[in-house]
Amino acid sequence: MHRPSTRDERVEMFGEEILRDFPVIDHDCEDTASLTYIGKSDTGGEVFVNSAFYKSDLRIATGLVESHFMAGLSGGRKAICPGLVDKRTIEKFHSPAFLESPKAQNLILAGNPCHEESLAIARTVGVDFIVNATLDKDLRPTGVFAGHIEAAHAAASDLVRNDVSVLLEHEYDIVLTHGGYVGRNHYQAVKAAHNALPAVRKGGTLIVATDNHDTEPIGGPEYRSLLHMLKIQGADHYLRMIEAPGWSFTKDQWEPEMWAKVFRKVDEKDFVYCTHTIPRNEYSLIPGRCGLDFLQEEPERLPAAAVREMVENALRMAVARFRGKGIEPTVAFIREGPYAIPALKGTE
Questions:
Q1: Mean pLDDT of the chain
Q2: Which sign, positive or negative, has the C-alpha torsion 323, 325, 327, 330?
Q3: Residues with Cβ < 8 Å from 238, sequence gap 6 or more?
Q4: What three-state secondary structure class fits 221?
Q5: Among the four residues 8, 55, 130, 159, which has the most C-beta atoms within 10 Å?
Q6: Does 197 share its domain with 340?
Q7: Domain end point (choices 104, 127, 150)
Q8: Is residue 143 part of a domain?
Q9: For residue 111, is it within any domain?
Q10: Is the same domain home to 208 and 333?
Q11: Distance between CA 132 and CA 318 in Å, rounded?
């Protein structure tokens, strides 16, 4: 349900030679003519999958394994579901019934409904071989895992858990994080904010700095509309709205739902979103405080360096707020941004 890739993006990913010699297909979950029905999975769901993949003599799935704030870890079975399935299956995978499970969380596979549904469908489809990679925060390979879809993915997952888990002695009053490479737009930057939640104290301040350099720096039209609805209705009302029996499932509704998890712990007035690519009139769609409010001057075209000024001034404001209450605040910077998964000692 993401937008199709552009030619420039394909060149960046594959190179001109590959594009010249091989067809590259963007899967379309709403194009029923491109899907094949193959029966029901072990969880009872009807499975429609991309015909070009299913009818191939050899089915190889590739992917990146990293922490995933819904499915526990990416890669492996996720190349099939949600990667190559129909719209209805994607909706089930991203439904509140799945996403509100306490097991639908970073690094958790056992009991995670997103993982279990994805794996059941991948088994039904059948994958001959996978090649999955793991990367560090600078996008350098740390491992390549090839072989059986479950065994190779499990090995990669073990490495990721060991590399990204950060145990904390306590929560912090102020937490600063960044969007990293994944935070190319506001839609994706929720991963940085959500992953920081175990580190920030209830009633604390969360500051996110990110470079939303995507052609759609906030996200697509459905996401923008639903995000504004979250801002208007608030986190709890938004969830009740999409859980209501009369609600018609809408593309991208799951990402504002993940933002709602952020705002159940961090008040909007204590959340600051800092980027130089979203103009002020567009910021009105976004819950939380606008990073532009922390600039002394606001030129028409902001340089990337403006984000630093936003962050510095937002941090000063947050420290002053706590000191005004007679509290010397504790401060944490998540250097690895969305690629680190903090957790309090003694929790799962």
A1: 94
A2: negative
A3: 229, 230, 256, 257, 260
A4: helix
A5: 130
A6: yes
A7: 127
A8: no
A9: yes
A10: yes
A11: 41
The catalytically annotated residue of 27, 68, 186, 194 is: 68
234 with 303, same domain: the answer is yes
The amino acid at 166:
V
Nearest to 80 by CA among 120, 131, 111, 42: 120
- Pick the closest to residue 329 from 310, 316, 338, 340 (CA basis): 316
CB within 8 Å of 146: residues ≥ 6 apart: 129, 130, 131, 132, 152
* Known active-site residue 68: yes
- Report the CATH number at residue 279: 3.90.226.30
Q: For residue 175, which amino acid is it?
A: V
Split into its structural domains, the chain has a count of 2
Q: Is residue 144 part of a domain?
A: no
Q: How many CB atoms lie within 10 A of CB 347?
A: 8
pLDDT grade, residue 157 (50/70/90)?
very high
Mean pLDDT of 72-80: 97
Domain that holds residue 305: 169-344
pLDDT in tens, 223-272: 999 999 999 999 999 999 999 999 999 999 999 999 999 999 999 999 99
- Domain co-membership, 50 together with 181: no
pLDDT at 348: 60
The SS3 of residue 82 is coil
The DSSP letter of residue 85 is B
Provide, rounded to the nearest whole percent, the portion of the chain with pLDDT above 90.
90
Do 240 and 313 belong to one domain? yes
12-41: b (≥16 Cβ within 10 Å) or e: eeeeeeeeeeeeeeebebeeeebbeeeeeb
Q: What is the mean pLDDT of residues 287-304?
A: 88
Predicted pLDDT at 298: 82
Same domain, 96 and 31: yes
User: What does the DSSP assignment read for 17-32?
Assistant: HHHHHS------TT-G
Q: For residue 41, what is the domain's CATH number?
A: 3.40.50.11440
Does some domain include residue 308?
yes
